[in-house]
Design goal:
Nucleotidyltransferase, domain 5; five-stranded mixed sheet; four-stranded mixed sheet; 9 helices; elongated
Length: 278
């Protein structure tokens, strides 16, 4: 009989019985990664009798842990010790891993566990190289887990039309690029469009850092033309930062931001995009 660390009270019901030595042993023998170690251990060979051929990565990982591998009722197990007890974790072959992950993912009552809780259960009962990554991938691919983890849809207000108050009242700013690098090293273009007159200001930039964008707005937009009442931008980090917020606060400019997933963004902060095609 195989032993394992006691699991939590809400352990998932199992259909792959870890005590089914015959089934697990046969699957281990057939497994291309575990099979060489199963044969080596079942024949009680020495360390000098390393399995023949080129070993896979998982086989090599198991071979490096050969001192902790034991045979229990014909099943290859890995011994694990804590401060008070010693456990024997079944080395699970590939053909049984998907079934075990599906069972460990569902707790009593049909509740699907998170990847972290699944990993805790796996570490208590079974082992194979890469089990942590496998449990994470399983949860990401589980339709029930994905639908439950998304949470409720965010509430969004209705779209509203902008009012054209007057010239230079509202500026729509945006960045285009990267473009082919110019002889002077510029590869981005900062655009500022007056929503009323459609007057367009273009400033070439060498990069799009927060400092570069804020300096370009100050030197090439606000100083020559004055500060507008409102500027509209998307939520790019070159616009949403402390430096630009401080600059707008000092110049008494209100900030408006569009959502990144707004389907009409080309008609809001994207005012300047069509102008770049001229």
């Amino acid at each position: 009989m195989l032993t394992g660390a006691p699991g939590p009270a809400a352990a998932p019901a199992q259909t792959v019985e870890l005590s089914d030595s015959a089934r697990i042993s046969a699957a281990q023998e057939r497994d291309p990664d575990i099979g060489p170690l199963w044969k080596w251990k079942s024949q009680a060979l020495s360390d000098a009798d390393e399995p023949d051929g080129i070993l896979s990565i998982q086989t090599q990982q198991l071979w490096d842990q050969r001192a902790s591998l034991v045979m229990v009722d014909g099943v290859l197990c890995r011994c694990f010790e804590n401060a008070t007890e010693e456990f024997q974790h079944v080395v699970v072959p590939k053909e049984l891993r998907g079934e075990l992950l599906a069972q460990f993912n569902v707790a009593v009552g049909g509740v699907h566990l998170s990847a972290r809780k699944m990993q805790l259960i796996l570490r208590q009962r079974v082992y194979w190289p890469g089990s942590k990554a496998a449990s994470g991938r399983f949860v990401k691919e589980c339709l029930v887990c994905r639908s439950a983890g998304s949470g409720p849809a965010r509430k969004q207000g209705p779209l509203q039309a902008f009012e054209k108050v007057g010239p230079y009242h509202r500026l729509h700013i945006n960045l285009t690029g990267p473009h082919p690098v110019s002889r002077t090293g510029h590869q981005y273009v900062l655009t500022a469009l007056d929503a009323c007159t459609r007057y367009l200001i273009c400033v070439p930039l060498k990069d799009k850092t927060a400092v570069t964008v804020a300096h370009a707005l100050d030197e090439h937009v606000f100083l020559p033309f004055g500060s507008s009442a409102v500027i509209v931008s998307d939520q790019g980090t070159e616009f949403c930062n402390t430096l630009l917020s401080e600059l707008c606060q000092r110049l008494h400019i209100a900030r408006l931001r569009t959502t990144n997933d707004c389907p009409l963004m080309e008609q809001t902060s994207g005012y300047t995009v069509p102008s770049m095609n001229l």
